[in-house]
Description:
globular, Rossmann fold, alpha/beta, 8 strands, 9 helices, 3-stranded antiparallel beta sheet
Amino acid sequence: MSNISIAIDGPAGAGKSTIAKIIAKVKKLTYIDTGAMYRAVTLKCIQEQVDLQDHRQVEAVLMDTKIELIGDSIFLNGTNVSEEIRRSEVNKWVSEVAKLSAVRKKMVEMQRAIADSQSVVMDGRDIGTFVLPHAAYKFFLTASIEERAKRRFEEQQQKGFSTSLAEVKSEIENRDRIDTERDLAPLTQARDAILIDTTGLSIEEVVDKILSYIQ
Length: 215
């Protein structure tokens, strides 16, 4: 049987990762968190104290970056950085790093290679439009900015990160702008993707909606 790909796209805080993990578990597929991959590159740049506005410095760091996805964890050059990549400093810069063509080229190559080798549920911002344009199933999750900020704020509070709801909302608005305006593979709904507004919906309700289409 050939491999099956499920693409789940959407802006920050729309619930992509949470939903994608559950779908992958239910359908016994491999979950790929592409956002975590870009976060890992951003963390590496911050650790190396490079000028994130200097593309050549970022590209140099990229050459010395090894990313591995093992289970629900992400490893950067052999170190588990699953918690570190969720910090506010990474939130602030990840969209700037992710929009660089050299970074996207390397990450997309890795993502496509994984999808070629096995059936996957992959979430991100350009999966259905760019990374896996021929995915068997495509979904685009969205929610109001207020709901997305609230979710991300509560998530960071649970992890012990010190931030305010206003700061989180500002970060998300900035990421939305960068993601939708970037030149290469901007955030947009694929024409053949199913739109699901998750505002006011529970995780179970969103999962049920997606499974109804897949089954």
